[in-house]
From TrEMBL:
Name of the protein: LptF/LptG family permease
Highest taxon of the lineage: Bacteria
Ranges where the record places region Disordered: 365-392
InterPro entries hit by this protein: LptG/LptF_permease
Length: 392
């Protein structure tokens, strides 16, 4: 690789990384707000919070890498155009392909990165994220019970409390037990705590009352005690009952759904379309680099800047992204449109190559001078040649 190409590639990679990190952090902050409540109000450990966000990072990168690639090519090549560096390189004999080569290499590196994320890191990380989410939400860990709300456990127990202290104590606790058919028991306590030992959930109530209504007579009996211990038993759900979403599946699980699973059969077209989109999205990343190259390398040098070309590139980039998302939704509903997921980015790449290699024909200057040897550049028509006589 030539020194100038290596220099351009390094500049492109550094700028692309900076843009990708900035966009990923912005998306990370926006998405992390929904987990902050778990730390502030529910006592979820901060380490678990950061682990949640790290597991979502591959999904964020798949979104920001194409945009970062486009922005890097657009910015670096526009800077070199503005500084007349590309003009000097063209005058030095660099072809259009040699000038575009660093941008194409950046697009190829970004494409390979998206391939690695789509085929391995995304399903692995998102599956782990969903399993943790399933553990905290569906297994009903005490730290996720909401204050001021009625929390239902397995449709048998309902827990309500006003507030939770930093020590984990629950103030104004109410527990309604309907685990025994035909018998409803309500416990009310000033303070209490929820504990978990292996798969056994327990509620410890202090200064509590037990209220029960006799279903035959309708009379209510109330009993008071300094301490009640309620055992909820094993309320875990089987992991096998959870259906894997498309983001959690590996490529072969998307392209070849389980025919014995009724939910896979019902979502067959959606899963297959998601698998093909996972294959085609790296081409979409490469196409983003080609769009920026086509807009900035085609045409002649302009001293007035390239704002118009930049706006055209951004417009085409927006159309490209919108078309890919629309094609994905259409392919999920009709599998006959799946080939368009591959055709669309390939058409964009080929069209960009055409415009990169296209050169405007320069108008040749026509010599306005006549070839007649006896006609002077300045003519006085057919005036006679006057010879001056020398006087003596």
């Amino acid at each position: 690789m030539q020194t100038i190409s290596r220099y351009m590639l390094v500049q492109l990679i550094l700028f692309a990384i900076s843009v990708a990190v900035s966009l990923a952090v912005a998306v990370w902050l926006a998405q992390s707000l929904r987990f902050v409540d778990m730390i502030v109000n529910d006592g979820l450990p901060a380490s678990t919070f950061f682990y949640f966000i790290i597991l979502l990072m591959p999904y964020f990168l798949v979104i920001v890498i194409p945009v970062a690639t486009f922005c890097s090519v657009l910015f670096i090549y526009n800077k070199m155009n503005t500084d007349s560096e590309l003009v000097v390189l063209k005058a030095a004999g660099f072809s259009q392909f040699q000038l575009a080569k660093p941008g194409i290499l950046l697009g190829a590196l970004s494409m390979l990165t998206v391939v690695a994320i789509n085929f391995y890191f995304l399903p692995v990380s998102y599956r782990e994220f969903r399993e943790l989410q399933h553990f905290f939400r569906d297994n009903l860990s005490p730290v996720l019970l909401k204050a001021g709300k009625f929390n239902t456990l397995n449709d048998e127990y309902t827990i309500y409390f006003k507030e939770k202290t930093p020590a984990g104590e629950l103030k104004g606790l109410l527990v309604h037990d309907s685990s025994t058919p035909g018998v409803n028991v309500t416990y009310i306590a000033d303070t209490g705590a929820l504990l978990k030992e292996d798969d056994d959930f327990r509620a410890v109530l202090w200064d509590a009352s037990r209220q029960e209504v006799d279903p035959l007579t309708g009379r209510m009996s109330i009993a008071y005690s300094d301490k009640y211990i309620l055992k909820f038993g094993d309320i875990n759900q089987e992991e096998g009952d959870r259906w894997l979403k498309p983001r959690e599946r590996f490529l072969h699980e998307l392209l070849f759904p389980d025919s014995s699973d009724s939910r896979d059969v019902a979502n067959h077209d959606k899963l297959v379309a998601a698998g093909h989109y996972r294959i085609a999205s790296p081409l979409f990343t490469l196409a983003m680099a080609f769009i920026a190259l086509a807009c900035l390398l085609s045409g002649e040098f302009s001293r007035r800047g390239y704002l118009g070309r930049i706006m055209v590139a951004i417009t085409f980039m927006g159309i490209m992204m919108l078309a890919m998302f629309l094609l994905k939704d259409i392919a999920e509903k009709n599998k006959n449109f799946v080939p368009l997921l591959y055709i669309w980015p390939l058409v964009v790449i080929l069209a960009s190559i055409f415009f990169i290699n296209k050169r405007k024909k320069r108008k040749s200057k026509i010599n306005t001078h006549t070839d007649k040897p006896n006609q002077d550049p300045i003519s006085f028509g057919n005036a006679p040649n006057i010879k001056s006589k020398r006087t003596t």
